[in-house]
């Protein structure tokens, strides 16, 4: 949705939305984490007019977040085998502690660990390098790119930052849908697309997106995956080339209630307060950007059977034209205002 048209046509409610977005950027102070909505996961997805108000955010306790050292997209076990989970978690323990090695049985596992770390332990991915001829005698080497004490400080800063992201917009008792939509909007409200990075030699990493306010698609997607994994929602990276091969793009696949959905927080950066790219089906993803379904690279695997990861559920379709939304956590309802009718809220039950 074009921001100028939005501002021209939405009058008083839009002015209120702008003020709320400004407050959100400072403190994540909204019960729904900000912006408008497109699609959201839930159950029936019924739509009804409503005049009820959303409970005050102050009445809800913050999400009881504790940093999880062990998180991994489930799809990587399909790619590398069940045994990779423990190998990766051993790496996590070693890397978070600043140790210089970890148990690793073979070269395939060693390279797999660093592949997984990009979205499943971004701080380690950002400050370590892959060594050749590893592992040796069942031990994999970890080499850091900054002095060890500085790295340990970066690890603590990273943990604090992750807590800031999560506790800033989630509430105690949030169900998976509330976590998914709130973190999606947190990212799209707080990140700016870094056009300069496209022309520079800067190291691109989800770590940069999480720690700073500028990023490009692969960084934003990895950041969203990691935040979801930290809140016990399975998610993985997905990417594709456009049909004419002119551009490559990366987004996220999220599992809600056993169903896969495409989420693209990068594309959402330009919608002002929307969820146009939230909870997309395969067909919707193909339309939005002209990325053929046959090109989808789920979890960067390329060899997985695509139908196993098909996104076909359309329950979020009513929300794709939303201009503004709010979460009523008490009633488990998303109140949303369609672009063509900002005077009446509709209800989406999740």
Task: Outline the structure in words.
There is one protein chain. The protein has 350 residues and is an alpha+beta fold. The protein folds into two domains: 3-59 and 234-349, no CATH class; 75-152. Helix content is 39%, strand content 16%. The chain has 13 helices and 14 strands. The strands form five sheets. It has a four-stranded antiparallel sheet with strand order 1-14-13-12, with no helix packed on it. Helix 4 (84-97) crosses helix 5 and helix 8 (176-190) packs antiparallel against helix 11. The chain starts with a helix and ends with a strand. The model is unreliable at 1-58 (pLDDT under 50). This is Transglutaminase domain-containing protein. InterPro entries: Papain-like_cys_pep_sf, Transglutaminase-like. It holds the Pfam family Transglut_core. Residues 1-31 form the signal peptide.
């Amino acid at each position: 949705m074009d921001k100028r048209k939005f501002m021209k046509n939405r009058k008083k409610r839009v002015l209120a939305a702008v003020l709320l977005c400004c407050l959100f950027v400072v403190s994540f102070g909204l019960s729904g984490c900000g912006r408008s909505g497109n699609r959201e996961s839930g159950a029936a997805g019924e739509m009804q007019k409503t005049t009820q108000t959303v409970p005050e955010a102050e009445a809800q306790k913050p999400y009881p977040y504790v940093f999880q050292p062990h998180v991994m997209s489930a799809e990587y076990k399909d790619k590398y085998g069940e045994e990779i989970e423990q190998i990766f978690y051993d790496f996590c323990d070693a890397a978070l502690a600043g140790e210089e090695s970890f148990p690793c049985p073979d070269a395939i596992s060693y390279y797999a660990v660093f592949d997984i770390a990009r979205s499943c332990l971004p701080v380690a991915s950002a400050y370590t390098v892959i060594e050749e001829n590893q592992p040796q005698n069942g031990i994999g080497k970890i080499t850091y790119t900054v002095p060890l004490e500085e790295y340990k400080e970066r690890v603590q800063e990273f943990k604090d930052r992750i807590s800031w992201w999560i506790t800033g917009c989630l509430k105690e008792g949030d169900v998976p849908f509330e976590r998914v939509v709130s973190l999606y909007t947190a990212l799209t409200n707080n990140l700016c697309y870094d056009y300069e990075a496209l022309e520079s030699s800067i190291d691109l990493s989800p770590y940069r997106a999480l720690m700073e306010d500028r990023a490009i698609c692969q960084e934003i997607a990895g950041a969203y995956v990691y935040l979801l994994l930290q809140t016990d929602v399975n998610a993985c990276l997905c990417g594709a080339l456009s049909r004419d091969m002119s551009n490559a793009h990366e987004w996220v696949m999220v599992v809600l209630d056993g169903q896969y959905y495409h989420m693209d927080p990068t594309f959402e950066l330009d919608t002002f307060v929307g969820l146009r790219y939230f909870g997309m089906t395969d067909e919707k993803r193909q339309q939005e950007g002209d990325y053929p379904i046959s090109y989808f690279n789920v979890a960067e695997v390329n060899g997985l059977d695509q139908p196993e990861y098909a996104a076909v559920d359309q329950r979020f379709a009513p929300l794709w034209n939303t201009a503004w939304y709010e979460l009523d956590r008490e009633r488990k309802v998303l109140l949303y205002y369609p672009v063509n009718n900002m005077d009446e809220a509709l209800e989406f039950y999740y």
